[in-house]
Each structure stands twice: as structure tokens, then as C-alpha cells.
Amino acid sequence: MPPRSAPTARQLRLGTELRRMREKAGLSIQDAAGRLGINRTHITNLELARFGVSEERVRALASIYACADRAYVDALVAMARERKGGWWEEYRGHIATGGLDLAELEYYAESLRVVELMFLPGLLQTEAYATAVLNETVPPWSPTELRRRLSHRMKRRDILDRDEPPPCTFFVHEASLRMRFGGPQLMRAQLESLLEASTRKNVTVRVIPFEAGGFPVSGVSVTYASGAVPQLDTVQLDSAHGPMFLHAETQLTIHRAVLDRTTKVSLAAAPSRDLIHGIIRQL
Q: Where is the HTH cro/C1-type domain (predicted)?
């Protein structure tokens, strides 16, 4: 397979999992290479995602590493089977890599849990609302850049329209419902769209009211994407410098607990819709 100039986050994750599997088996790179009869550089390149890895090679490595978790190995094999890039590749070179990796993460997620504080979730934004939010960027985007980022954001929403869309739970803070991006009329249309989305069978919207006070992720927006097996879950955090992706076992455990606590402080689906209706009446 030809070398990659810029591995995606998912390709890097596959390499990371191969390294974790090797280290768990207590084998060095030299040991693994010797058992396969290949150069140790080849193992390093696979673990750094510099090259693709075949399904057969993944299973061979799993056998050498004595990994008995069949579901986990099958999930890694499925990742190795992915040869073509997704729709987001047409934006490569025009949009920051973190945005492409987020679209990839959402596309392959088995389920999503999203916590948003000041903005409504990107997957539920109307075009007008997204435009108003993007127009707040400093320095401002050029018209061409704005159209490109808006197109990318709108295409991310397509995962909700699949024949078998992933279950998604969106925790939105009351502050994000009351921020009037684009003015009252635009915000009213956005909130009505949010209510409509909440009626989808795969979408749950839960509001974190002001009365809830503080909660564990009150300082950052979070996306928790479930993989085919729990070991392949990923947490994405927003930062001033772009998305951060976490998948160490301890990090996943902490964020599962954080989201459990967030669930407890948020309103259930029906009271959340009632609160959104009330805010719409005030606009």
C-alpha cells in the first residue's frame, strides 16, 4: 500500500489500537516483526498509520498478540477494510483537519452523545443559524470560505437521515436556547427546527436548565462517539485551537461518568420540549 501523506484520525486510531494490542501482549516492536518475518520498520509504520493495513494482517497481528476479544478484533478488521475516504475528503485542504476528523467521527459512530453550552449542536443547526454563528468568527471568513464551511456543516447532518441513523442524545444548555444569533425571528425558526428534530425516533434533546447550576462539563462542549465496541469509543472536546480527540481508557471512563451526571441534571425529553416552547413564545 502507498504511504499516506496525512492519515485521518480514524486511521491513526487503528494504528494506536494495534500498538495497544502489542503492548498488552508484552511484545516489543522487534518481537512482533520477528514473529511475522518482516522488518521492524513495517510494524512502526502500521502503528503510526503511515501505511494502510490489510484485514489479513490485522488478524495475523491479533493472533500473534493472543488477543481473544473477537468483537474487538472484528471491529479493527472492519476499520482496515475502509479503503475510500468519505464525503469530507472533498474539503481537505480547505477546512482544518479537525473539522474533517469530526465529520469522520460522526459518520462512523454507533451512537452519539453531545453536550453543547453556548451554541446549538452542529448536527441540528439550520442553515440560517449556522450562517449567523459562522459570521461571528474573528477574523471573518471570506465569502468563499464561509460558503465552504457552511456546506461542510450542512452535510454533516446527513447522518440523521440514513435508513438506520445512529441514536443521538443532545444535551443543550438553556443559555444556547436564549442566545439570539441572527435575531429573534431567525432564532425562533431554529428552535422550531430543534423541536421538530426532537420528534425523530433516533434523536433525543435534553435541556440543562439554568436552575441545574454547575455540572461536570460546564466549561466545554463534548461529543462522545460510541464505537463498534467500547474500547473504540472516542471523546471529542472543543478548544480554541480546534477539536481534541481522546480515547485513552481512563479518559473514556471519566467522560462516561461525566455524561451520566449530565443526564441527571438535565430535563427529560418532554419537559425539555416544554421549555423550548416557552422560550419560543418569548421571542
A: 18-73
